[in-house]
């Protein structure tokens, strides 16, 4: 699986958009970009994933650059409950196992 | 989304005893499940791949005789930590794949005294 690079930490004001970047310059053509988050002492929670096109669901939006070497997770209106460690992972579909980096610790402040 | 459960959520045991952790996919079948371990302030580390009806595949450095994995059905995988020692104290998390996505259990916190 390709390696990803994320900033160690980010702050965001409550109610504002949180934009979390991820670099995955060695991504292969069949690898998806997945985003998970982990709130303290819980298992990771699936957020969103995509291959080439931008994706949006009820939780977030995923913007993938045209060359697929980087992506951005957008939480449109961050709340205090969005404070968590966010992991960006690239993995081929159905490969299953995920290689976790250190992720980005997002702190949403009032 | 798909639901994966783990039992127990936390367990305390004495050094030298064995502990079994269950991972269940509640609303879907999973031929493959994964076991991770997470130490404090660290990221998740994959321990092994659990395959229904066959032997598990262990990551480098993970002792297969210490961490016994059984995947007897399409909805249940178990991880048994044998002869547990304090250094095995950790947060154990399982996951199961559905379609293109992995769904994770809530984790089991193991404390070995």
Kindly list the characteristics that best describe this protein.
heterodimer, A: 110 residues, mainly beta, five-stranded mixed β-sheet, four-stranded antiparallel β-sheet, 0% helix, globular, B: 113 residues, seven-stranded mixed β-sheet, 11 strands, 55% strand
What does this structure look like?
- The complex is a heterodimer of chains A (110) and B (113).
- By secondary structure, chain A is an all-beta fold.
- Chain A has no helices and 9 strands.
- In chain A, the strands form 2 sheets. A 5-stranded mixed β-sheet of chain A has the order 1-9-8-3-4, with no helix packed on it.
- In chain A, strand 5 and strand 6 form a beta hairpin.
- The termini of chain A are far apart.
- In chain B, strand 9 and strand 10 form a beta hairpin.
- In chain B, 0% of the residues lie in helices and 55% in strands.
- In chain B, strands 2, 4, 5, 6, 9, 10 and 11 form a 7-stranded mixed β-sheet that branches.
- Chain B is an all-beta fold.
- Chain B is globular, with a radius of gyration of 13 Å.
- At the A-B interface, strand 3 and strand 4 of A face strand 4, strand 5, strand 9 and strand 10 of B.
Furnish the topology, listing elements before pairings.
The complex is a heterodimer of chains A (110) and B (113).
Chain A: E1 9-13, E2 18-23, E3 31-38, E4 45-50, E5 55-56, E6 61-64, E7 70-75, E8 84-92, E9 104-109
Parallel strand pairs in A: 1-9
Antiparallel strand pairs in A: 2-7, 3-4, 3-8, 5-6, 6-7, 8-9
Chain B: E1 4-7, E2 10-13, E3 19-25, E4 32-38, E5 45-51, E6 57-58, E7 67-73, E8 76-81, E9 90-98, E10 101-104, E11 108-112
Parallel strand pairs in B: 2-11
Antiparallel strand pairs in B: 1-3, 3-8, 4-5, 4-9, 5-6, 7-8, 9-10, 9-11
């Amino acid at each position: 699986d390709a390696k990803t690079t994320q900033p160690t930490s980010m702050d965001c004001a409550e109610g504002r958009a949180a934009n979390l970047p991820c670099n995955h310059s060695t991504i292969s053509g069949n690898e998806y970009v997945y985003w998970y988050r982990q709130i303290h002492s819980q298992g990771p929670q699936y957020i969103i994933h995509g291959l080439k096109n931008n994706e949006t669901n009820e939780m977030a939006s995923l913007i993938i650059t045209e060359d697929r070497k980087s992506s951005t997770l957008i939480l449109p209106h961050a709340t205090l409950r969005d404070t968590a460690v966010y992991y960006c992972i690239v993995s081929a579909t159905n490969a299953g196992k995920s290689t976790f980096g250190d992720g980005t610790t997002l702190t949403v402040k009032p | 989304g798909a639901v994966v459960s783990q039992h127990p959520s936390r367990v305390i045991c004495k050094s030298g005893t064995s502990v079994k952790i269950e991972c269940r996919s509640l609303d879907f079948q999973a031929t493959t499940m994964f076991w991770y371990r997470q130490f404090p302030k660290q990221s998740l580390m994959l321990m092994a791949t659990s395959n229904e009806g066959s032997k598990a595949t262990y990551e480098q450095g993970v002792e297969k005789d210490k961490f016994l994995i059984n995947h007897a059905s399409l909805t249940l995988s178990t991880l048994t930590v044998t002869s547990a020692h304090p250094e095995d104290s950790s947060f154990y998390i399982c996951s199961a794949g559905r379609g293109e996505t992995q769904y994770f259990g809530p984790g089991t916190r193991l404390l070995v005294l």
